[in-house]
């Protein structure tokens, strides 16, 4: 896995395929491979797919006690620029959607198209504050409760139930609150891009998930309303739409990204 130094942080990334750049930006508690590894093959025949790990994920280290949105945006843009000189498209999921939107606002000359999946613009929604604050506090008092709560929040009820009893147990057992995850959740609960959204000039598609308990679909609708000229789509899914509705998501992405 190659590395690019961005403001003193070694940012690890992968780059596969041929063609114009397509940057995927992962969400909290994940990395480029875990969120998008299964999607990559759908695009590498015509795109150079770039999947960086920002600070606290994968092999990219933390270097401070607190993450910033600008820091993560610089890291993912740095990874893309290490691979391609031309403008590229960006797909962001969850916290990665917020990072991608901020990057598009900061670098309009680099971001050709933008896809924002299950993101949010602000953190003054009391229900959102309650959900994310509890998510952050649980690891300090009961790591097993954190894992169970995470599973309940990120998957829709029918999708999680479909794992069966043993599958649910295995899923919960695989969820851990690493230090990088905690720092990313702390960023989740304070980030605000509402002032940046109107300045985005890239052609934008916003995707929301109607069964999302972690980031309710109203937040995606708000982003769509704030980004000038953006297109909008909804999928019948929980937060982890990248797994729950893979085929439908790939179709939406392909239709949008392959437009002239």
Briefly say what this structure is.
This protein has 260 residues and is α/β, with parallel strands linked by helices.
Your description of this structure?
By secondary structure, the protein is α/β, with parallel strands linked by helices. It has 2 domains: 3-122 and 192-257, Rossmann fold; 126-179, no CATH class. Helix content is 44%, strand content 18%. It contains 11 helices and 8 strands. It has an 8-stranded mixed sheet with strand order 1-2-4-3-5-6-7-8, with helices on both faces. A hairpin with a 2-residue loop joins strand 1 (3-6) and strand 2. The relative contact order is 0.15.
- The sequence of SSEs as H and E is EEEHEHEHEHHHHHEHEHH
With helices defined by DSSP (H or I, 4 residues minimum), what is the helix count? 11
Give a short account of the largest sheet: 8 strands, mixed
- Report the β-strand fraction as a percent range: 15-25%
Supply the key terms.
eight-stranded mixed beta sheet; 11 helices; alpha/beta; 260 residues; 18% strand; Rossmann fold
List the helices and strands and how they pair.
Layout: E1 3-6, E2 9-17, E3 21-25, H1 32-40, E4 48-52, H2 69-83, E5 88-93, H3 95-106, E6 111-117, H4 126-141, H5 143-154, H6 157-161, H7 164-173, H8 179-188, E7 203-209, H9 217-226, E8 231-235, H10 241-244, H11 246-257
Parallel strand pairs: 3-4, 3-5, 5-6, 6-7, 7-8
Antiparallel strand pairs: 1-2, 2-4
